[in-house]
Amino acid sequence: MLARLRTVLTGRVAVIGVPYLWLLLFFLLPFLIVARISVSDMENVSFKDLISFKDGVLLVSLKFSGYQFIASDSLYISAYLRSVQYAAATTLLCLFIGYPFAYFMARARHSAQPALLMLVMLPFWTSFLLRVYAWKGLLSEGGWVETAIVGLGLDRLLYAVELIEAPGRLMHTPFSLVLGMTYTYLPFMILPLYATLAKMDLRLLEAASDLGATAWVAFWKITVPLSKAGIIAGSMLVFIPCVGEFVIPELLGGPRTLMIGRVMWDEFFSNNDWPMASSVAVVMVLLIIVPLAIFNKYQAEAQEVRK
Amino acid sequence: MSSNSVGTVAPAAFLQIQDVVKDFGGHLAVNHVSLDIAKGEIFALLGSSGCGKSTLLRMLAGFEIPTSGRIVLDGQDLAGLAPYQRPMNMMFQSYALFPHLTVWDNIAFGLRREGQSNDAVSQRVEAMLKLVQLAKYAMRKPHQLSGGQQQRVALARSLAKQPQMLLLDEPLGALDKKLREETQIELVNIIEQVGVTCVMVTHDQEEAMTMASRIAVMSEGSFLQVGAPADIYETPATRFVADFIGNVNLMDGTLAVDRPDHVIIDCADCKHYVGHGITGIEGMAVSVALRPEKITLTRAAPVDPGFNAVQGTIKEMSYFGSFTVYHLTLASGAPLKVSQANTERHVDGALSWGDRAWAHWSPSAHVVLTA
């Protein structure tokens, strides 16, 4: 009996332990190293020890100048703010485009759903880099999308809301950046939304209709609240990577769209200031952990409801 | 079959189903069905799954559109009215309570759609909670309630808007047997207290018989028989109805003697003397339906073993406490079920496995079926 319990326990420990070990080794440990570097002093090409014991004196030296610098220099703060702003705009756009998309997929004929899912995932078959590069061609002067937008006079509208710097110039603007990020991250919004919407009990909509709700009211009062878990999951899956996005701003962004990923890159590879770069990274992780914690809280609540 | 009877002024039918057909791509789920339901009735559509009863109910609610025919409620044709415009509410199978809303908000959902004031809504919700005795649970979510409580929330929600008609889809199907029996009576009490006309769908004949004032037995999209529970049980119109409702022994035979006051039917194992006339001709093939509880089982032969009596061997006995069902095998090999009430605690020389016994019954016990 006891032996059996022990084997069950070891089995359980192994199953739960492996992902924990993975997170420990490949997330927490590297993060702690980064955190350590962020408070270290450089000594030529190596880092000084944080704690040293010399002549009976225990020295703890933590260098917070990186964080101080981030707090005092508006470049960092505005880059953070801009990253959050663009990530939020991308998330909203993905939600508005992705929700109807997921909704009609979930309500399509059952036989058609696997094919529709395939179509959503099809872009992943091509390199992400190539797809972002393709937008460069589409948005540059003479590109199809550029021709269409300018031809329809939509560039004036974009200029009026300050998404592009001058009419007719679409590339290297907030517009091209958000367009590229929305395009890239849309599937990450659609898939969790589809999963929650497909699971929904459609009789609830009949019940709502029976009780006097029009289709529109039933959508807002029943469908949307019940897909909350999917909305949150999708938004997190888009928002979190978008904040730290580096490649898309590099390719499609411009001087006005300096995001924190680029700042970090510069600190690491142009300035070679690792402690500074690490400080930037730590702040960014903290910036992302807050929404993630909120997400987890909702996820737990949603599970509570489902029980 | 209709509620009209000679000599009395029939109450105008409250709900009229007129020659309704539902065609699902060549399959007639509901096949030319007509029915009148009076105000205040509790009417049950009874049938096995796939017989079209749910489709008919969904057409009443407006979730399905009849292929042809009319549904008229209180003089108003319901064609073209969306579910949310119909003055009827439905209690769904396994309830379809909104999982993200509290009991209170579930009940208030329909009232809020009518644009009532907050005061009016909360008054009505309070009254409903009191009616189903769930006032204490108002702030719970559905998943925090037991099955029986969920059922009562569903009932309160469907009654909150004071519908002219209440539709129940397998109202007790999700409850276990003991709870189902208690709830049947409670549900009927509440429905009668509110005074709402009610159409329910069920596959459970006991549920239909206990709750409904009239029953329609459905099969393959058509009504086989419509009537009060006792009519359907005691005078089934067809073999199917006799077999579907309750336990029955069906014996095939021929009409040997046909008199205005009695008939005699020859079957393989016995002769039936039936104490009333039937419409038929001598020599025609008929069936006799005999309920197990209308048969008496004794060791000794009855006074006149020539008619309404048969000897058999007891092969099986099923003891149910208040009664025992004996499974007899007759001379021809045909089975006969006999149900005997256990009125004494101990009987000396009680019948048992392998015993030969006489089964006999009165001239009014059987029903002659020509269809």
Query: What series of H and E elements makes up the topology of chain A?
Result: HEEEEHHHHHHHHHHHHH
CATH class of the largest domain in chain B: Alpha Beta
Strand residues, percent of chain A:
under 5%
| First-residue to last-residue Cα separation of chain B | 17 Å
Describe the main β-sheet of chain A briefly: 2 strands, antiparallel
One letter per element, helices H and strands E, the order of chain B comes to EEEHEEEHHHEHEHEEHHEEEEEEEEEE
Q: Provide the CATH top-level class of chain A.
A: Mainly Alpha
Major β-sheet strand ordering of chain A: 1-2
Question: Stretches of chain B where pLDDT falls below 50 for ≥5 residues?
Answer: 1-10
> How many domain units of chain A?
1
CATH architecture of chain A: Orthogonal Bundle
CATH homologous superfamily of chain A? MetI-like
End-to-end Cα distance of chain A: 31 Å
Q: What is the average of the pLDDT values of chain B?
A: 90
Per the CATH scheme, the topology name of the largest domain in chain B is Rossmann fold
CATH superfamily of the largest domain in chain B: P-loop containing nucleotide triphosphate hydrolases
Given helix and strand content, the structural type of chain A is mainly alpha
Structure in words:
- The complex is a heterodimer of chains A (307) and B (371).
- Chain A is mainly α.
- Chain A has helices at 2-38, 65-72, 74-107, 113-121, 128-139, 144-151, 154-160, 174-199, 203-210, 215-226, 228-243, 247-252, 260-270, 274-306; strands at residues 42-43, 46-47, 51-54, 57-60.
- Chain A has one domain (73-306): MetI-like fold.
- Helix content of chain A is 74%, strand content 4%.
- Chain B has 371 residues and is α+β, with helices and mostly antiparallel strands.
- Chain B is 23% helix and 33% strand.
- Chain B is built from eight helices and 20 strands.
- Chain B has a six-stranded mixed β-sheet with strand order 6-7-8-3-9-10, with helices on both faces. In chain B, strands 13-12-11-14-20 form a five-stranded antiparallel β-sheet.
- In chain B, a hairpin with a 4-residue loop joins strand 11 (249-258) and strand 12.
- In chain B, helix 2 packs across helix 3 (118-131) and helix 3 (118-131) crosses helix 4 (147-159).
- Chains A and B meet through helix 9 and helix 10 of A and helix 2 of B.
